[in-house]
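Throughout our pipeline, every protein is held as a single compact record rather than as scattered files. Such a record has a labelled line for the sequence and another for the backbone structure tokens. The remainder of this section carries one protein's record, kept here as part of the documentation:
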Amino acid sequence: MTDSRTLGQSVPKEGLFLMDGMQDVNYELFADSVEAECSFGIRNPDQTLVNATLEELGLAPYRKRHPNTLSGGQKQRVAVAVSMICGKDLLVFDEPTSGLDFDSMTQVAGLIRRLSDMGKVIFIVTHDFEFVCRTCSRVLHFDEGEMPDDVSVIMEALPKLRELFSVSDGKER
């Protein structure tokens, strides 16, 4: 079910949340190849699923390459691929758009929405306002061990969201 008042494209009412923090995908990839990364730590990985996911995300040509030789957007797609393959119901993405250009950010947003459509519950740690508007249904704002704000990502909440992300409304004051 979606809420037509969301800021970005159609975003599920439940399942996508935001938390505030920082991370770098370069420290999240451990295997010697993209293909190995997609089954790293998974007991009895389904190789058919690995292959299909690599094809679906445009990563098949890079399957034998070391993940650290990929672009930022490709690395993020590898992280999403692992999430699609691992079979976990709860996923956490820490700064998934860090260092990405707009096109790569929109690709990652689409992939994360697809994971949500698969029934995954997703927590995203980010400072990326545009990404939040395209991907999330709620913003959980944490500050010094407290959660002072739980804001739905809808048009009516835009002023509060801009305040939380320190984003100007474009009007001169």
In short: The mean pLDDT is 83. The two ends are 39 Å apart (CA to CA).
